[in-house]
Amino acid sequence: MVELTQSTRFAIFAQIMSAEKATAIVLRLVDFSESSSVVTFFTREYGKLGALAKGAYRHKGPFDSALDLLTCCRIVFLRKSSGGLDLLTEAKLEHRFRPAAHNLGSLYAGYYLAELLLGLTDEYDPHPELFDVAATVLEALSKNDNAMAEVLFFELNALRLLGHMPSFENCVECGKVIAPKKRIAFSQLAGGVLCAGCRPGKRHVVSLSGEALEALKDLARGNIEDVRNKEIERNVRGELRGVLNHTISHLLGRKPKMQDQLRFLDSD
Ligand SMILES: [Zn+2]
Q: Is pTM, for the whole model, over 0.85?
């Protein structure tokens, strides 16, 4: 009987493992050794996954400079059967993320998007619609569009598609429809508006203006074109950021690192 060495066994194993293909956005790159890197992708087909890229930085390597933060690429990888990292075997660049020149807001918006996808999604939990929204928003940020509106659109879609959308229409406690008013109570803990009957005694409640609530409802149901063409007043924008900063920090269990940088999105 022929004894197989460890490396021969691995080579045979790698061949019988099926290679998976996916469209992916690069969310994070961490050096593993001088020439290798661990890459976290958000893929359309499989959701988030981490893969070891051997020779990631070699100029004419199998990854052909596709492995850069927020690039969109086509990847081929070998899936590890139990735990551990997948092995990246191929990456072909589709789009590079190029924030508009001199627009710090677009760059930070891109980093923030990566941070949210890393923090809010689970490994091998696919959300193809969220992938499409992320790809659309990254492309729009490269064209110097309205970074503030793009971020709001991405956040609300992420909340909706991941099942965390706050309740803006009905009281989060009793379900009663909230009639338009000047000021409406919003519970940051319960994640939604409160009617006058449910408001007393609740902690972490902020008062939202009627305009801010209407803007949130529009964003929550809106398509991207409506959001892009909408002028939101500066003080209302401040209220929207307050609600979303809180909602997202609560979901992540911490404040996103890029949250303070979002003020660069407000250019006027
Ligand atoms: Zn109520």
A: yes
**pLDDT higher for 77 or 267?**
77
Measured in angstroms, how far is the CA atom of residue 165 from the centroid of ligand 1? 18
* Tokens 């893929």 found at: 43
How far away, in angstroms, is 176 Cα from ligand 1 center?
A: 6
Q: Calculate how far, in angstroms, residue 192's C-alpha sits from the geometric centre of ligand 1.
A: 10
Distance between Cα 166 and ligand 1 center (Å): 14
For residue 240, report the distance from its CA to the centre of ligand 1, in Å. 22
**Whose structure tokens read 């197989």?**
4
Fold type of domain 10-95: OB fold (Dihydrolipoamide Acetyltransferase, E2P) (2.40.50)
- 29-54 tens-digit pLDDT: 999 888 889 999 999 999 999 999 98
**Segments making up each domain of the chain, as ranges:** 10-95, 104-165+203-265
Going from the Cα of 120 to the center of ligand 1, the distance in angstroms, rounded, reads 29
CATH class of 104-165+203-265: mainly alpha
Q: Can you tell me the mean pLDDT for 18-34?
A: 92
Instruction: Say how many Å lie between the CA of residue 201 and the centre of ligand 1.
Output: 12
- The Å distance, Cα 7 to ligand 1 centre, comes to 64
